Amino acid sequence: MPDVTFTVDGNKLTAPAGTLLIEACKSAGIEIPAFCYYPGLSLQAACRMCVVRIEKMPKLQTACTTPVAEGMVVQTETPEIAQARKATLQLLLGNHPLDCPVCDAGGECELQDMTFKYGAADSFYAEPKNHREEQKWSPVVYFDRPRCILCYRCVRMCGEGMDVFALGIQNRGSSSVIAPNVPAQMSPDDLAHVDCEQCGMCIDACPVGALTSGTYRYKTRPWEMNHVATVCTHCGDGCKTTLGVRSTSDGAEIVRGDNRDKSGINGDFLCNKGRYAFDFANSPDRITQPLVRNSSGVLLPVSWEQALEHVGKKLRELRDTRGGKSIGVVGGNRLTNEEAYLLQKFARTVLQTNNIDHHRTADYVSFAQALAGTTGKAASQRDIEKSPAIFIIGGDPTNQNPLTAWNLRSNVRLNKARIYIANTEEIKLRRNAKAFLHVAPFGYSALADLMSGDDSTLESLVQPGTNKQVALDFRAALRAEEEVVVLIGSELRGGDLKKVIEFGTKLPGRKFALLSDYVNSRGAADMGLLPDMLPGYTPITAGSNLATEYNIATEPGLDMLEIFDAAGKGELSALYVVGANPVARFGVDPAALRNTFVVVQEMFLTETAALADVILPAANLYEKSGSVTNSYGDLQQVNKAGDRAGVRTDFEMIVRIADKMGANMRALVPFGKGLHADMGQTRGAQSGEADRHAVWLTANNLEPRLSPFDPMAILDEINRLVPGYSLLRLQLLSGNDQHLSPAAPSDLVQITNRRDLVLPANDGLFTSGTLGRYSAMLADLQQNAASRTAAAEQTAAD
Amino acid sequence: MPTLVSHPDEVKVISRRFGMGATDIDKYVELDGYKAVQNAIAEGPEWIINVMKASGMRGRGGAGFPTGLKWSFVPKQSEKPKYVLVNGDESEPGTCKDHVIFLHDPHAVIEGTMIAGLAIGSKLGFIYLRGEYRYLLKIMEKAVADAYAKGFLGKNIFGTGVDFDIITQSGAGAYEVGEESALMESLEGKRGVPRIKPPFPAVVGLYGGPTVINNAETIAAVPHILLMGGEAFAKLGSERNGGTRLFGISGHVERPGVYELPMGYSLRKAIYDVAGGVKGGKKLKAVVPGGSSCPVLTADEIDVGLDFDQMGKAGTMLGSGGIVVLDETVSIVEFALRTISFYQHESCGWCIPCREGTDWIKKTLTRVHAGGGSKKDVDNVQYLAENMLGRTFCPLGDAAAMPTLGFVKKFRKEFEDYIDGKKAGTPIITVDQLVGAH
Amino acid sequence: MSTIANTIFSPEMAARFDKLVTIYPVRRSALVPMLLYAQDDLGYVSDAAVAEIALRIEILELDVRNVLSYYSMLRTKPAGKYNVQVCTNISCMLRGGYEILDHCKHKLGIGHKEVTPDGVFSLEEVECIGACCWAPAMQINYDFHDDLTPEKVDVLFQMYKDGQGKDVK
Ligand SMILES: Cc1cc2nc3c(=O)[nH]c(=O)nc-3n(C[C@H](O)[C@H](O)[C@H](O)COP(=O)(O)O)c2cc1C
Ligand code: SF4
Ligand code: FES
Fold this sequence. Notes:
The complex is a heterotrimer of chains A (798), B (438) and C (169). Chain A is of the alpha/beta class. Chain A contains 28 helices and 31 strands. In chain A, the strands form eight sheets. Chain A has a seven-stranded mixed sheet, covered by helices on one side. Mean pLDDT of chain A is 90; it is low at 674-687. Chain B folds into three domains: 25-235, Rossmann fold, CATH 3.40.50; 244-327, Ubiquitin-like (UB roll); 332-437, de novo design (two linked rop proteins) (Up-down Bundle). Chain B contains 18 helices and ten strands. The longest helix of chain B has 18 residues, at 352-369. The model of chain B has no long low-confidence stretch (mean pLDDT 96). Chain C folds into two domains: 11-70; 82-161, Glutaredoxin, CATH 3.40.30. Chain C contains seven helices and five strands, in the order H-H-H-H-E-H-H-E-E-E-E-H. Chain C has helices at 11-20, 31-42, 47-57, 61-68, 90-94, 97-108, 150-161, and strands spanning 82-87, 114-115, 121-126, 138-140, 143-145. Chains in contact: A-B, A-C, B-C. The structure holds flavin mononucleotide, iron/sulfur cluster and FE2/S2 (inorganic) cluster. FE2/S2 (inorganic) cluster (FES) is lined by residues 34-37, 44-50, 62, 64 of chain A. Flavin mononucleotide binds at residues 59-63, 65, 87, 89-92, 175-176, 178-180, 213-215, 218, 394-396, 399 of chain B. Chain A: Its cofactor is [2Fe-2S] cluster; [4Fe-4S] cluster.
């Protein structure tokens, strides 16, 4: 659209023709008040707060519906306009309970702000206000009708934004009311409820305190909290969540989650897990003291010093007597990149083992190998918002990657993007798709063939009885698209995954992303929590920089299943588990670990922790700093929000154990500035690491790290050594996401016939692996959803 | 059954066939029915629009927009189908003129719809009647069925190769649905709330297609205008206000009824001659001249011609042509309260000023009426109405604010006296009744 | 035969609905009249009616409820067999509308939106029904009765009670 020039309050402005006046003004720093307007949602023009005076127009006009036009002359704050806004506020306040002192929105309420600005607090109505009882629509959504100003943001957010349509408007005139989709008379408890995804986006959009959150209500006031922006721990989308934190006697309690400033990779969005499921951190079940099993098999609390001493001594002994190869290490998907990197480095250089793995939730190795040698082919989360076409194979973003689904929907709604879906299930996103190909069960392999131009398996691709032409048309339509993001579900792996990507890389304008679960599943793989791959998908067999730098054995270690097989055979002397629950996840027979020394860093007494000889109480992602990488390869900073007395970060524990083992700390964690440069020279390949680090930092105007417990020290090393992780530190520190695309170096031999150990977590909206079990809110939501389903079945049967 | 009235001053164009059995299709044809549409097919869209422009016909729905001009706004080329919508939602208090058209001359509505369709290149028309008009809907449904049976509607009408269909539709009780965009929402199966304009219906209307929407009387007049010629119709009326219109005269008059009078006809004569004067020889107190949304005229303001422009000059509106006559016994406080109660009940609730404004005015006047008012309440009512005027999403807010302002400005003293316990008029609404109904 | 198995509507109404959804450019256009006709058939729009209509129109029940609650003629509770709707808007008010309403209340022994114990009559005060020139007026179900006086109302009630009243749907 060509730019037009217009005048607002005497300022000459330009904006693309068609821009809404309210947006054009906002870009120029002129704030026009609005209740009903919400960027990206349909226009409402209902609140009349945004009225402005436009020359040559007889009446005040709503800035939220008026597109800017050449030569337009606008006034946004005249006495006439102020009066109109004041009158509107007076009308609203007439029935408003004015219970600001106890309202959750107090201090963050747009009605309060407006009233303050336009001075409409004086009420001249003698009539009593309409009082209504507050309603509990779900464990997380409460509705206080008298506070509602009927801006319909919630209704639009739920329908247009979430594609859920759980909220409506009922009655009319002054009886109008926001109504949920389960009316009282249809509910077993005779109360109205919402049957929905419980995302809480309605609460977020509500400009006042009419919709409030079950986790936060009446807990505290906004100004009594510290607000820390970090990354949600639950899924691979990596939403930014701002945690509201309050000090308590034993730390800092998280009381609220939201995306306060609507910035970051997720913009407006946050799903129910990002918003409410921080509560595991406050769980009374948390382990807050190191526990060591005594000779009679009972876990007893000991001091940190004793516990670390014990672990260090024992691991050193086992390594020295039975060899590093007798030790297994399992890392987690919720660790920071720095922790994952440090863990594998510790395993490989200190424990001297390559027996290291993690719960793989998608085949990132094949993904990286398929993209080897290409540039700009890895899609970021932000591409999903903008790409004109998206092809989704497998996966179910609505339930498993809610931000991805949100971005897809927004892209369709706002940019008319075309979505093509091929799936064995009739996933909900097909409602927003241009084309849906219903793939036969186990048909993804055939689909990969089809995409790569091989029609021979067409028969096994389509659902029985479906016209095969549908599949061919689907492919033709997709091929005709000039720019496509190919979003791949974790069902596709190995050869199939490579086929889909290799075919696509031959076409211009294709980008790819592989979806996974958990906040740092991608980071765990990128950082080399793998028996056969060093960080950055560098095969361990090849003589790489990393291998040289580490000075380690170049034969692959045992993978997850082999580690437990070895344990079963009595060949595993020690198992070190950091933030994972492999025993439950892989159905390990507890007896297998009988003769293994098991150390587990955990928050809770999980199935794995219960078998441990030593449990070290761990901090969770919300209690530490560092970085994480989402499924797409977008790197973001994690900031410490909560705190719990007695626990330590995994980073610190690894460092302390290494120290107790007598490892060379400066080689493990490069810290300090140039102090021991000479010492380095005597250490061959590892020489001068700390020094180079310091040089780099100085060159980038950053302070060198002085403590071995500072994850930033490791980040520098990641930055320097991990292929694809050439990140911009300043970008990261200022809270921006950066798209990285680690891909296996193309000149290295690719390992074929790797064992497929991918086990998708398949977490839905109300589950989150083992961690989810410790969130009371998620448990409530599961139960709530189950009771809704039961009620629905009951009615259907009647 | 509504009684038919007549008066020598009437000029019967639209009501020409009333009482002549024209609901019967053969009778209608005998009375020159379905001739105009055949002419229209022969002459083409441009001709139709020109005749309508020449006729000086201004929409009878209330706003008085020139019909020919409105039709000419519809783009000739359109990717989406175009539609004709007949607005028979007639819900403005004081208005019952479309009622008699549906009752006596349903085919004129059908024929007019067809002609409007031809003029804009539409093949489908909707005739929307308010839900309460079920018996009239039945009459319309039968007329449409008869027209189909004769080949006047459907494919290849009159053997000319032209297709045109009509669907009749029932509302379910909502004044706001009379507003054109709200009517489209209702017809699309939604809550009857208005749409943001622009785009205007002529460009983006029903189902997103260009749409002409007209009042039922406007549409029923079309065949007559085509038959008599635009200029001839124009000449019947006053300057820039072509032809005749149906006026419903109700309230305190001797002979209430729907009369067809030339545009510009004297309001005084309409009350005193046509409708036989104030009932029981009482004194005239005030007149609401064009449906309840028009500001009231006092007894000495009725020497004004009944057309859009003269009424505008007199500070009120011609509106829907529903003249409501109030005699000296009426309490204006009570009348104002009953008027605002209607708008409060019918506000769709979409925008704040209308939803809350009507509610607060009503609450305040209810208290005043019950004897609990203070002088400040009159100021408050005026303040509220002034702040609604021109600020609401759709004209319903204005329709509530304008009469309210008329009452408090012209009868301020009566409000103040009422508050002081000197009640003018004879209140007939008991406090009890108000609590019950609204 | 209805396209919906186990329809709750009468066979005629079900057949009518089958057709109704097909005549418009968009299925949903059938919603408002369908709700009103459903009410004619059942006496009110029941939860079961909402469910079936949602199915017929292919929209959510919530959507049906949103629309249903907007229109003042639609009700979700049964009314009397004969629903007496007295207009008290301005033209009727001036010619005795309130008197008629009071008379009805007295005669039927019920108030606004109430139903007589025998279920024969219900009463409602309504806004303008488009009979201003023949005021005072009321509707009994869909039938108009004009120029009312209390005496005329008595006669009408008796007629309806005796099953002699007009009742066209
Ligand atoms: C609140 C409101 C109610 C209205 N009700 C009606 C109505 O019942 N009948 C009608 O014809 N026009 C009504 N109108 C006017 C219509 O919006 C529209 O202007 C009219 O149907 C156009 O037809 P015309 O050009 O033939 O007058 C109403 C307008 C408003 C704002
Ligand atoms: S609940 Fe909140 S978001 Fe919804 S309409 Fe009311 S004020 Fe607006
Ligand atoms: S923001 Fe424009 S009317 Fe509400």
